[in-house]
Structure formats: C-alpha cells, structure tokens
Amino acid sequence: MSDVLPRAEAPQPPSYPPKTPPPPKRPVEPPRPEPQQRMSYGPPGARTAVAARGRMAVTMANRRGANWTLDVRPWAVSSAPAKAQRLVVDQLKGWGYRPDTDQVDGLLDLLVREAIGDGGHRISVHLADQDERALILVMSHQGQQAPADDGFLTRLAALGVASCGVDTDAEEGGRRRWALIELRPAP
C-alpha cells in the first residue's frame, strides 16, 4: 500500500483589499510661549521691567466701518494714496457726511506714504464713524519698519485732526497710524 500524502494547495489571494492602517493622529499642539519681560525706560537711570502682552487687535464694534487692502508693490505705489483718498471720501459721503476733502486727501496722503515707507507688499486702510467723527487707520503689514519719523505726528496734527497716534509692534510686524477727524453731516 502506498501512502498518498495530500498535496498542499497554494495559498489563494484574498478577495478583498488589505486593511490600510489608520492615518496618524494630529501631533499635540506645542505649549504657547510665556510672555517675555521688556525693559521700560522711565526717568534717567531708572529701569523697570514691564510684562509684555500681545498687541491688541483693532476692533470696531457697534459702529459703521469699512476697510480696504491696497497693493503697494513698486508698480502700484504711485496710485495707492489717490485710491485710498477716493475710497474714504466716497464711503464718508455714502454715510451722509460732507467731509473736508482737502483735509482727508492730505491726511490720507501722509498716512499712506508713511505706511508705504515701511516696505512690504500691502497696506490696509480702515474707516469707522461715530458721533460725527471718523477714525482713519492705516496699517502696514511689514515686520521690518523704517525708523519712526519724529515729525510725523506733528505734521499729522497740523492737518487739523482731533487726535492722532502711532502704534508699533516689531514682534508681530506692522505699524498702525491713525487719525480722528471731525465731520459735518450733509444737509
């Protein structure tokens, strides 16, 4: 008698695709940096540490507002002040004011040209009104600003603004320049 051994069959491929591994989980968010200490200079010889906090965002709440982003690359620089002037004056007229166009034109020319001086590819112009006053804010979005011009606020105040200011934050990049002007309602 011969012993017949059964022949092993070749393994059959599965009739379904292999199971794919699940995608990797999102990495854990790194911890947020602790606020740094900045040195604030007071009277001569006195140095005090002040806790630094992030620059507050521009917030316009409970009032009308508008904003525009302007391209200030080399080929568009010459038209940016005029475009900002036209946009702001048209918006103020749309809100029912009679703006002093000479004042607004001079103001925006100065604000926009200073923002262009910071470098970068764009600036933004923000406008808000409340109680027959308008806030015009121009922001440069460039981390490496030109040095601050000491006479800028003096020239801005000479244009008859109610209030004005400059805010710079080198960590986040950008500089905010703003002016508050009085408006007359349209008859």
Polypeptide structure, described:
With 187 residues, the chain is α+β, with helices and mostly antiparallel strands. The chain has a domain at 64-182: Heat Shock Protein 90. It has helices spanning 80-94, 101-117, 152-157, and strands spanning 37-41, 47-51, 64-71, 122-130, 133-140, 163-168, 175-182. It has a five-stranded antiparallel sheet with strand order 3-4-5-7-6. It has a two-stranded antiparallel ribbon with strand order 1-2. A hairpin with a 6-residue loop joins β6 and β7. α1 (80-94) crosses α2 (101-117). Mean pLDDT is 77; it is low at 38-54.
SSE layout and pairings?
Blueprint: E1 37-41, E2 47-51, E3 64-71, H1 80-94, H2 101-117, E4 122-130, E5 133-140, H3 152-157, E6 163-168, E7 175-182
Antiparallel strand pairs: 1-2, 3-4, 4-5, 5-7, 6-7
Helix pairs in contact: 1-2
